[in-house]
Design goal:
Elements lengths: L3 H10 L4 E11 L5 H9 L4 E6 L2 E6 H7 L9 E4 L3 E8 L5 E8 L3 E7 L8 H7 L3 H9 L2 H5 L2 H14 L5
Antiparallel strand pairs: 1-2, 1-7, 2-3, 3-4, 5-6, 6-7
Length: 169
């Protein structure tokens, strides 16, 4: 996985203006049905969510993993700030996640965000550090050095603060 600095560079190369320390790993939130939750559990579709000057930009994580040097703007999803009606952040009971809901002019978008406290042992942290749990091992995953390179953990509070303070139309 690319470092946060490399992610910001890729976002800039695509023509966006990324905000500093406003980048986290997200996935689509499942609906409340059993099939929705099972589908989400077995799906490894994660996105980098980067807050930029005029919009929120999403890049599929596999793009950064496999083609990070040559991304195309067409693969980026974006939510322009001027289309946002509301942003809601809630802790999901009995899980290790938050749910972020964006209400726009035309859609409702629900995202799942893994809590930072457990991210070293979950996909958000391993994606943000470039280490899988098996590669890092349990002791390395719990070490202070490993946490220091986990930009999902480091950026979560700042990103949520920025989201909550976005102008809503």
């Amino acid at each position: 996985m690319a470092s946060e600095k490399n992610v910001s560079q890729i976002i800039r190369e695509l023509g966006y203006e990324p905000k500093e320390h406003a980048c986290i790993v997200v996935s689509y939130a499942p609906d409340n049905s059993l099939s929705g939750r099972l589908s989400h559990f077995f799906t490894l579709e994660y996105y980098i969510m980067q807050l930029c000057e005029k919009e929120i930009v999403f890049l599929p994580l596999q793009v950064i993993f496999f083609a990070g040097m040559f991304p195309k703007k067409e693969i980026a999803l974006q939510i322009p700030y001027d289309t946002l009606r509301s942003v809601e952040i809630n802790e999901v009971k009995k899980t290790l996640n938050y749910e972020v809901t964006f209400l726009t002019d035309t859609d409702t978008i629900r995202l799942s965000v893994q809590k930072k406290e457990w991210s070293e042992f979950r996909s958000a942290g391993t994606a943000a550090t470039g280490n899988s749990f098996l590669n890092a091992g349990g002791l390395a995953a719990a070490s202070k050095d490993w946490k220091s390179i986990n930009w999902h953990r480091q950026n979560l509070d700042n990103t949520f603060t920025l989201l909550q303070n976005l102008p809503q139309h």
